[in-house]
Specification:
11 helices, Rossmann fold, six-stranded parallel beta sheet, globular, 304 residues
């Protein structure tokens, strides 16, 4: 049995689709999977069970990337195609059952839209796949016995970024209450991401700097060892939620009603103002600190 799964070019949306993939893995234990996604998201699926191929879709002029996907997939009959991009590609392939997401942006949780395509209500929570080697590497980087707080101070555009000094202030408040905490600062590759993380790294010299050069699954292995994640609305935030750790997403100029993190211990804190248009500067340190403490307390009360 062969399943073609067409998901997002963006990491965050791709993470949100992993719950459906996990459900398909359980439902069809004899199936193999081909994933079509953007290059940024490709590493998310590196250790997915029964994945036989990832087709990286690089955007081309005149939508030629869809032609390239068709060319890559036309030589096989597909038992199932799940297309979260709403394309027509599957209609030009030999496909048994098609699940094609239609429509543009709409209200409600994105993870619910994805699950609803297969009639899954409630939608399955996202997951993260890592290798034994990556988990061992994470164990060396994040020593056991330390309670690590992961900070995600970057995002794909500046309007979604909470001021760096407030990340520092929240961590200082948490550490004052629990001196056993230590920060690990996570960010993506490239000079722009490094520049966005630099003020937090400079203010927290004892924090672990992950360097921005880790793969998506390596970052997931690190996150799985953390006590808490605090970060802007980003792919990294969604990855933390998928790892099942307490995850606090910070929102202002993006919609928490659509893109709040999904996970067993995932919460959003939203800046005051119009939904999706509120300045991040309106979100106070005390509010975020209080939400983080409440989340940790809930997790501890549940036996974590």
């Amino acid at each position: 049995m062969h399943i073609l799964f067409i998901t997002s070019t963006r990491l965050g949306d791709a993470v949100l689709s992993t719950g459906v993939l996990d459900e398909l893995l359980r439902r069809y234990p004899q199936a193999d999977f081909t994933i079509a996604c953007g290059p940024v998201a490709a590493g998310l699926f590196a250790h997915m069970p029964r994945r036989v191929r990832t087709v990286e879709m690089v955007k081309r002029p005149h939508n030629r990337h869809w032609l390239e996907l068709w060319q890559a997939c036309r030589g096989r009959r597909w038992d199932i195609c799940v297309d979260l991009r709403g394309s027509v590609v599957s209609y030009f392939l030999r496909v048994g059952r098609r699940y094609v997401m239609r429509g543009g942006r709409r209200p409600g949780r994105r993870v619910a839209h994805i699950g609803g395509l297969l009639g899954l209500d409630p939608p399955p929570l996202p997951v993260a796949w890592t290798s034994a080697a990556e988990r061992a590497q994470a164990g060396h980087m994040l020593a056991a016995g330390t309670r690590w707080v992961a900070l995600g101070p970057t995002a794909n555009w500046d309007g979604k970024i909470w001021p760096a000094e407030r990340f520092v202030a929240v961590f200082a408040a948490l550490r004052a209450a629990d001196p056993g905490l230590r920060a690990v600062v996570l960010y993506g590759p490239g000079p722009a991401e490094r520049a966005r993380a630099a003020p937090v790294l400079a203010a927290l010299p004892n924090a672990l700097d992950t360097g921005g050069g880790l793969s998506v699954s390596q970052v997931a292995a690190l996150l799985a060892r953390c006590t808490l994640f605090i970060g802007n609305d980003s792919g990294l935030m969604h990855l933390a939620g998928a790892c099942g750790i307490p995850t606090l997403g910070l929102f202002g100029r993006s919609r928490a009603a659509e893109y709040a993190p999904s996970g067993p211990w995932a919460r959003a804190v939203v800046a005051p103002g119009p939904a999706g248009h509120a300045p991040m500067e309106g979100l106070g340190v005390d509010e975020v600190t209080r939400a983080a403490c409440e989340l940790l307390r809930e997790r501890q009360d549940a036996g974590g």
